[in-house]
Every structure is written in structure tokens, then in C-alpha cells.
Amino acid sequence: xxxxxxxxxxxxxxxxxxxxxxxxxxxxxxxxxxxxxxxxxxxxxxxxxxxxxxxxxxxxxxxxxxxxxxxxxxxxxxxxxxxxxxxxxxxxxxxxxxxxxxxxxxxxxxxxxxxxxxxxxxxxxxxxxxxxxxxxxxxxxxxxxxxxxxxxxxxxxxxxxxxxxxxxxxxxxxxxxxxxxxxxxxxxxxxxxxxxxxxxxxxxxxxxxxxxxxxxxxxxxxxxxxxxxxxxxxxxxxxxxxxxxxxxxxxxxxxxxxxxxxxxxxxxxxxxxxxxxxxxxxxxxxxxxxxxxxxxxxxxxxxxxxxxxxxxxxxxxxxxxxxxxxxxxxxxxxxxxxxxxxxxxxxxxxxxxxxxxxxxxxxxxxxxxxxxxx
Length: 374
Hints:
The protein is α/β, with parallel strands linked by helices. About 65% of the residues lie in helices and about 5% in strands. It has helices at about 5-25, 45-55, 70-80, 90-95, 115-140, 145-155, 170-200, 205-210, 215-245, 255-275, 280-300, 310-315, 320-335, 340-350, 360-370; strands at about 35-40, 60-65, 85-90, 105-110. The protein has a 4-stranded mixed sheet with strand order 2-1-3-4, with helices on both faces. The protein is elongated and about 95 Å long.
């Protein structure tokens, strides 16, 4: 069946290869670059033009338009041509020269969170640097030495260190979970289809007959090829990320792959549980798709668990991807001892044992075929 039905080949190899090529090339630079922004220059002074020049010289943003009215910049944002824009007010230079505090207003389109936040970060940095540079020149003309000027401009020096990812590479934060998440969704859906199709096409009795009536032998014989295939794909993903994409591994690469195998087996167990509870292919696939997609939102790698509502925090533990994510963070980013990953591995093993609760029900469904077809 794996070789004869195109759905298996398409849904495993093609989808996974496409996902790897698409996402790894999408984030090939590691961080977003040249996010388009606009600047509304109401001052039209030398210092406002200098600010625009400095913004355009940064790696993260690209000033695609300098307008002289707020309306023009707003239209550009509404058309999706810029992620953000800044309004430099009238008398910007004059207020700075007289030691007043001109207000520069930022507008961001948070429908594009990554682009808007990147643009906002660069706007804040450049405006802070511009203000500091002007004050430095004024203080120099007053005769203050540079070391006193720096103490006045920046009395507290801040050093930022990204734990486990010094370059702040978005690829490390996202791809290590997105690709296993897609693989887990494939495992879930294909396993449901593999077992559910036996029920739909009334071949489940032939399956049991080939296994000499043993439900356990039938399931092992049917799913072992899937296990070997998916585990090989999971380990290959980790090898690509670590060896080819130079992902940091501050912990154990072997233990990361152990977590990957446990995660795949847990997803297969969840698939068997879904089919056992809902022994109808169409409905089981719908429930599986819902669970698989929710795991991306509730695993905590895009939106942190501590920021969720309390009752939603409890739901995050019901998805295997959440526990693989904790293993990934521990082994790739933090580099803690493997004892820190053991609780997550134990939970994945509990997911693997979940299928034991529905074995009798699924066995009866395969044997008696008492469920409706449609």
C-alpha cells in the first residue's frame, strides 16, 4: 500500500521535501532584512535627512518612500507596501538645538508581526542614536571630555547576550520546531488514513486474518514500516539543521534524536487513539487535522506558554509537539544536563502508552466493522 497508493508518497516525501526547501530558503539569512518602511519628513532639515539616511543604511530596513504628508504614508501602509513609517515632526532640528524634546511617532502594521517589530526596533535604535549624537556634539563644544560625555549620555551600559543563539538567528528559534511539527502532522494524518482506510474499504478482516487473528501483530506489522520511514525522516531533519545549517547544539545531539523518535511514536499513538475512538475515516481525519494544527499554536514556540490564559496553559500539555519543543530548547539552546529533558521524554512515553486504552475498541472495530461507512 505504501508503494501502490500515491497519497502515501505525496504526503510523506513530497510534502516534507517541499517544506524543508521552502522554509530553509525563506529564512536563509537567519534574520529578516530590508523590511520596507516610509518616513514622513515634516521638518525637511539637514538632521532629518541625516536620520533618513541612517535608517536606509541599516541592514534590517529599507526606506522605500519619503513623504511630506501623513496621508501618503498611511496609504502606503494600507496597500501593504510598507510595514511601518515614522513621522518626523516640524521644527525637529530647532527643538533639538534648543534642548526641547521633539516627538517622533511610529506607526506599525502588526498584521505582519515580524516585519513590523523589526522595523520598530530599527526606528527606535536610529532615533536614540541620533539624539545621542547631537547631544554629544553640543557637549563637546562646551568642552567636556569624551569619557564624561558618555557617562552622561549612557550612565548605565547594557550588554545583551542571547542564550544559546548569539547571532539571534530566527532560523534556530523557528525551524527546529516547524519542520518536526509538519512531520508530526504527516505522521498523525497518514497513520489515521492507513488504519482508517482498512475500515472504510472493509479490508480490516483480511488484515487480522493475515496476522492470524492477533490485533497486536496486525498493528505492529502495519505500522513498523511507517515507524522506520518517519524516524529516518526525523533524524535526517536534525542532521540537516545541525550539520548543514550549523544550528548550535549546546547539549546532546543523540538525546535530541531520542526525543525525535519518542515524539514520532507518540504521534502514531495519538493517531491510533483517534481512530479507536472514532472508527470512521472521514471524521477521524478531521479530528486529527484539528489536533495537529492546534499543536502549532499551543506548543509555545510562537507564543510563550506563560503569556497564555491559565486554562489554556493546561491544554498545552496535551500535545506531543509541546514536549518535543522542551527537549529541543534544552538540548539545542540551553545545553542543560539530559536530566532536564527526562520529564518531557517521560510524557512522550505516556503518550505512546495512550493507545493501550483503546486497543479493545479498535480491535472490535477492525473485527466486526459495526460502524457506518459514511
